[in-house]
Task: inverse folding
């Protein structure tokens, strides 16, 4: 039988964590929710994360086919889901785009909007899933990962980024130029491990899909040699299986490709 006090504490903790997710516009809304409404909202969030990969795929397919009627329908569906979880800014952007579909300036602009929307929505889906994993204790078997509320100090912070895609590493360098972050890049897990023989970064950014040694295996080896800095995984996949596997591999957070400069720095600054 559920302890009423423990249940209330669980819901209170969930509300506190929800208020930290920037993509959800919950100012004043959480306080007005009773326990039943909070449970219902949590279920809606779970349904969104379950359905998001399908929504994403349908939207991409409609755009690729240049079927703008279907694209508008898919975008309306995405808007409705975003409204249901109070992701108001993204829902509003969807509606604005829907209103303008009758006078599309160019397919390229529509592609740019869709890419930006899906990256932001995927990050939101991942943030919601991570909240649920923390609550369920799914991270207990994972290698230790620093909390997001660590005490941060000033000065230069060293980051090791590992990705076999040179273009992304070049983009990351441009994002972090003239910041307090010093970036070292390697294109393989083996090169990264060689670097770690004499260096201890303050943060790791690891691509998941790499040949020979993927990000999960590299993360395990990083922990085995005693490196404890936070690991941020690079991903294009917001499915529940992918997120859970990344957390169990020791990931503390995610960057969804192709993120903007602001999104990348926001993720990094949570830790260092």
Result:
């Amino acid at each position: 039988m559920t302890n009423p006090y423990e249940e209330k504490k669980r819901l209170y903790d969930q509300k506190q964590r929800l208020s930290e997710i920037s993509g959800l516009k919950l100012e004043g809304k959480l306080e007005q929710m009773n326990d039943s409404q909070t449970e219902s909202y949590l279920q809606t969030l779970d349904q969104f994360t379950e359905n998001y990969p399908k929504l994403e795929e349908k939207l991409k397919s409609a755009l690729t086919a240049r079927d703008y009627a279907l694209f508008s329908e898919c975008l309306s569906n995405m808007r409705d889901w975003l409204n249901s979880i109070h992701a108001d800014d993204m829902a509003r952007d969807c509606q604005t785009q829907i209103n303008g579909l009758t006078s599309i300036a160019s397919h390229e602009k529509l592609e740019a909007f869709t890419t930006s929307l899906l990256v932001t929505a995927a990050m939101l889906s991942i943030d919601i899933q991570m909240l649920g994993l923390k609550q369920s204790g799914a991270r207990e078997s994972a290698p230790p990962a620093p909390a997001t509320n660590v005490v941060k100090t000033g000065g230069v912070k060293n980051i090791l980024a590992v990705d076999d895609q040179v273009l992304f590493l070049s983009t990351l360098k441009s994002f972090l130029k003239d910041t307090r972050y010093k970036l070292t890049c390697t294109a393989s897990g083996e090169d990264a491990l060689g670097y770690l023989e004499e260096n201890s970064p303050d943060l790791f950014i690891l691509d998941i899909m790499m040949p020979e040694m993927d990000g999960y295996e590299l993360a395990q080896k990083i922990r085995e040699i005693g490196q404890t800095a936070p690991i941020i995984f690079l991903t294009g996949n917001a499915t529940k299986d992918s997120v859970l596997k990344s957390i169990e591999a020791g990931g503390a957070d995610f960057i969804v490709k192709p993120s903007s400069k602001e999104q990348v720095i926001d993720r990094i600054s949570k830790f260092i």
The chain has a mean pLDDT of 90. The first helix runs from residue 4 to 18.
